[in-house]
Structures are given as structure tokens and as C-alpha cells.
Amino acid sequence: MKFTLQNNSDQTIGLKRFLNQQGISHRMYHELRATNDYVFINDIKIPFGSEVPAQATVTIDLPAEEADASVAVSKQPLMVLMEDENWLVVDKPVGLTSVPGPSNRADTLVNRVKGHWQDINSDNLVPHIITRLDRDTSGVVLVARHRLANSLANMMQENHDINKSYVAIVSGTGLDDHGMIDAPLAKNPAGYNQIITETGKPAQTEYWKMEELTDATIVKVKLHTGRTHQIRAHFQSINHPLLGDELYGGKKVMVIKHQALHAYQLEFVDPFSGQQINMISPLPEDLKQYLATQKIQPKPLMAKLTK
């Protein structure tokens, strides 16, 4: 797969430094150099150690990644929201693990994406999950289709240029209209949950109150960091655990068999095209059923959330 990059500066720059600035890691640079004797600069074949003149275009050939035979192919359904040569955006259902692990190596999101790409005869069968979700959290997930997209996405995440928004239904009422939960998190050495501790990693969760119900509250949530179980642990820490979240003390609800958390929106500027990508995942059926019991209509709620 060939990519064309532009040196928009007025200065000549070394090829390695230029590619690093474009999001290509040192490791990827050495992999490219090992598989390519040259690059094209302004359509002229140039040795790999060359410099890039001001305003020049650089074309690199990125070989497809070798598929991992140990990663199984799953033909189970995959809800595709958007796909091009660089990105895949999918709607992950509740109950589907993001990546293979000891408890499930045959049917995870990675396995299903691999199966989907096999079906469309993709050159690359190595999914890079960028915005991973817990097994029982539903919603939109970004997948990079090749190593360069993965490297650029990691850079965007470090710079907070990928905006993810969630809707959660938390126990109780009385929340402020807008708030920031700023509390460090670490794994509980005696369990599977995350705990608030001064020795943990920094974690910030911003929220907006959308609807107050009889004994619960619907909130829009934005993560400023990406810690494990961050939303779940943070709302427990302010005595408003998510409905259905038994691990964090959430109230059981008949129609919701998991934490009431859904990643409904993903936004970023595509570094390849410069276009804004804004993907929306509708609420899953069980959350819709719960809202129906509360006389809340999902469509007006989603319209309010996406403003």
C-alpha cells in the first residue's frame, strides 16, 4: 500500500525525522527501511537515507502485515458503520470482548474484523483496535486498517484528538448539571475492579446531566484519560454507580443485564484526508426498553446528546 506525504515546511529535513513527524514511529521506520531500498521524493527514486526538500512529496510503500495464524477467524455478524482504506468503525454489541484472551480466543471483535476483511479480500488481516470497550459496554469502536493508521491514531490519542462520548445511566439523583471527576485509579490487588488511590494513574471524567429520573440519572460522559473501567469506578466513587454494574455496586434493573454504559459518538479529523469523521451509534435495545419504562423517548435523548 502506497502513501504520499507532504513536507509543508520551507526547510529541508532528514527523511527519518520527517517520517517521525508524520506519525511513523522509529520502529516502523526501521521496518520500512528493512523492506524498501528506496523511497520516492517528488516522484524520483531516492535512497532511504536521503533528505526531504522543502514542499516536497514523499511516497512510501507500506507492505501488508503478515496475518497471525493463531488469531482465529470468526464469521459472526459485524455491524459496520463506516469503512475506507484506512479506518473501520463498527458498532460493538454488549457481550462481545474486544480482543482475544484466555476466556475467549475464537469470537471477539478482533476475530470478527479478521473474518470481515477475509470476506472482502483485504490485503491486511491484522486489526488494530484503537478505542477498546469493556465486554459489556456497547457502542462505536475505531479500528485502524494498517500500521500507519495505527501509529497516527496512537498519536491522536496522546494529543486528545479523538473525541469519544458515552451515555450512562447512573444510580440516584442530585448530580450537578456539569461536573469533573478527577481521581487517580489503580487495579484493586484483591479483586478485578479499579480503586481510587493516591498512587494510581491520573484519571479525569467529565459529565453533563441530561435527564433526571425517579431514582436514576442519564448523563453524557467524556473521558479525558483512558483508564480501565474509568467511568464505572469514577461514578461509584461519587456514590452514583452505573445501573446494572454489579462489580461496582450498581443497582440491578430487570431489563438491563450489564452496566448501563454505551459509547454513542466518535469524532476525529482523518489525518489522511483532512475530513471530519463523526460516527453515531444508536442506543441498544435493552437501554431503549428501560427508557420506555421511564417514559423517555430515545430519539429526543440522542438528539440532545449529540448537540
Describe this structure in words.
It is built from seven helices and 18 strands. The two termini are about 40 Å apart. The mean pLDDT is about 95. By secondary structure, it is of the alpha+beta class. The protein folds into three domains: about 1-60, no CATH class; about 80-160, 2-Layer Sandwich (Pseudouridine synthase); about 165-305, 2-Layer Sandwich (Pseudouridine synthase), CATH 3.30.2350.10. The strands form four sheets. Strands 7, 8, 9, 10, 11, 12, 15, 16, 17 and 18 form a ten-stranded mixed β-sheet that branches. Strands 1-6-3-4 form a four-stranded antiparallel β-sheet, with no helix packed on it. A two-stranded antiparallel sheet has the order 2-5. The chain has helices at about 15-20, 25-35, 110-120, 145-160, 230-235, 285-295, 300-305; strands at about 1-5, 15, 40, 45, 50, 55-60, 80-85, 85-90, 130, 140-145, 165-170, 180, 185, 195, 205-210, 215-225, 260-270, 275-280. The protein is about 20% helix and about 30% strand.
For the record, the CATH class of the largest domain is Alpha Beta
Average pLDDT, all residues: 93
As for the CATH topology of the largest domain, it is Pseudouridine synthase
Tell me the fraction of residues in β-strands, as a range.
25-35%
Write down the overall geometry.
Answer: elongated
Give the helix/strand class: alpha+beta
Q: Helical element count?
A: 7
Topology:
Layout: E1 2-6, E2 13-14, H1 15-21, H2 26-35, E3 38-41, E4 44-47, E5 51-52, E6 57-61, E7 80-83, E8 87-92, H3 109-119, E9 128-129, E10 138-144, H4 147-158, E11 163-171, E12 178-182, E13 185-187, E14 194-196, E15 204-212, E16 216-223, H5 230-237, E17 261-269, E18 276-280, H6 285-293, H7 298-305
